[in-house]
Amino acid sequence: MKAIANSPLMFALVAIGLAYIVFLSIAFYRRAYKRCLELGITKETMKDVIKSSAIFSVVPSLSIVVGLFALVAVFQSVIWPWWRLSVIGSLSYEVQISGLLASSFGVSLVDMSPEQFGAVLILMSVGMLSGFLILIPFGKKLCMSVAKTETTSDWRHVFSGVFLLTLFAVFIPLLLIGDTIQALVMITGLIVAIILGVIASKPKMGWLNNFILAITMIVGMASSVFWVGLFK
After folding, report:
1. Could you tell me what percentage of the chain is helix, strand and coil, using 3-state DSSP and rounding each to the nearest 5?
2. For the segment 7-28, what is each residue's pLDDT rounded down to a tens digit?
3. Which of 1, 102, 123, 201 is the right S-S partner for 117, CB 3.0 to 4.6 Å?
4. What is the b/e burial string over 153-192, where b = at least 16 CB atoms within 10 angstroms of the residue's CB?
5. pTM score above 0.90
6. Does the CA dihedral 94-95-96-102 come out positive or negative?
7. At what angle do helices 91-105 and 114-128 cross, to 10 degrees?
8. CA 187, CA 34: separation in Å to the nearest integer?
9. Residues in contact with 77: Cβ distance below 8 Å, sequence separation at least 6, in sequence order
């Protein structure tokens, strides 16, 4: 499994995919820039927008970097985590799916056969496509429906709240029941996130909102070392 995960072929395929994503991003950037000029937006204004967007894109990506290191430890390879978290991956989804599959095979992730490893990669990739497949026929209608209710009702707030509660109902029991260390790390991260959220709500502290996710993940991972030393 390690030989496949770290093979030159895997590296080449991931590099090609990431190069395509970069090319696509540049193409959209050029089209958007040209369209802004056509609409009469000044170059100075666009430069300010580009600078602010770049800054506020780098800060949230810190949490993704932390997730990258976590997945590297799981897969014993940087190539596949690099691909998953660079395009459409989610740390919680990747870890959960790979762990469930490994358990169903009766082996650990590092002891999987090439066929089992391939099954993990396929499911991690295909599972993430479900959202896009749903959006193709229903995405525009859903967006238009939400836009129509923005000034007439609070339905969109109810929908968002129900969606988040559903996620909590699915993931939190697994984290709390699965393992004591895992539960303690989650509780630690929750406490840190609440404290940071309260601080961010104070005047002139709104900038902290961009760092909450990254700080919470880093503190949570650091706390795992403490909890392991205390209970094991």
Report:
1. 85, 0, 15
2. 899 899 989 999 998 999 899 9
3. 1
4. eeeeeeeeeeeeeeeeeeeeebbeeeeebebbbbebbeeb
5. no
6. positive
7. 140
8. 48
9. 2, 5, 6, 10
What are the pLDDT digits (tens) for 157-168?
777 778 778 877
**Which amino acid, one-letter code, is at 126?**
V
pLDDT in tens, 82-95: 888 787 767 767 77
- ∠ Cα 185 77 23 (to 5°): 105
Q: Report d(CA 153, CA 121) in Å as an integer.
A: 43
Distance CA 226, CA 232 (A): 10
**Residue showing tokens 């358990």:** 103
What is the Cα–Cα distance from 34 to 137, expressed in whole angstroms? 30
Distance of CA 94 to the CA centre of its chain: 9
